[in-house]
Amino acid sequence: MMSAATLRAGIAAAGWIWLATPSDVRVQPAPRPVTELCAAGLEDGYNLDHTDALRLFQQAIALDPDDPTPHRLAAASLWTQALFEQGAITAEDFLGQTKSNIGRRPPSPALADGFRTEITRAFDLAEARVESHPRDADAHFQFGAAMSYQASWTATVEGRVVAAVRNARRAFNEHQRALELDPSRTDAGLIVGMYRYTVSTLSAPKRFVARLIGMGGDHDQGLELVERAARVPSDVQTNARFTLIVMYNRESRWNDALAVIHELQARYPRNRLLWLEEANTLLRAHRFADARRAVDAGLAKLAADQRPRAFGEETRWQDARRAAEAGGRP
Fold this sequence. Notes:
By secondary structure, the protein is mainly alpha-helical. Helix content is 69%, strand content 1%. It has 2 domains: 2-97 and 108-253, Alpha Horseshoe (Serine Threonine Protein Phosphatase 5, Tetratricopeptide repeat), CATH 1.25.40; 272-330, no CATH class. α2 (34-45) runs antiparallel to α3 (50-63), α13 (254-267) packs antiparallel against α14 and α15 runs antiparallel to α16 (313-327).
């Protein structure tokens, strides 16, 4: 489950810019390029501005409906919202360490229908590009990225991990092919690295089955591929950094995880959940006083934030506070 769940991409946007003419007639400027809209969408999305995110990706789709990228990012935005509704919001959820009594609930029909529409369109457009340009690395990347989000939705939102394996394998193969065609595609390395790392952590029988379906494990190579994706600017760079938080926590590399979290806090200051992530990592490192400070900073952000809360979010903050207080007692 971890491999699918860590694909989380937070995603989102900014609004249109309006200009006033000397006659005070407000006109809309020329449309922003698709790449600019998508970049702005990613920026605000990781700041938890989900509604703006989807609106911006829809604007990008309207500009170029045959580009699979905005369809894929719109689907990712809807997936992130579904996880938010279910309360899957920190590395705890993907490390099997969640202590809060948060149960899975089905996504809202609007989110589920929207996701299916956008991911199907992204898949169809990318598949057509692969068929017409079989040696185009980007075509394979787009195809694999669409398959990875489908696998992620199936495994995390629907809870059907086994059913997600087929799409996960296809995503792995397409991104492996993208790397073969263009070794500089560090964005394709995220999926390949994440799956290789995750398979390496499985039991021997499960690793054997993974090899049979073409997804071999390699701990060091997997981690290195994700680290490379986290270093190079792309539309998966931040996603790679969130993935590293999970990996470094699994490896008990607390300082490395905290370094990534602090980078993300500086980049996305409106994402209050990053302070919860910091507190949980500090708790695992037994740095209880620092964890209390992170919780206090996060709770101050929560109190000033009028945006929707994730399902069970208040409980998660209180759990972290109680753990920090209990751990710090003599």
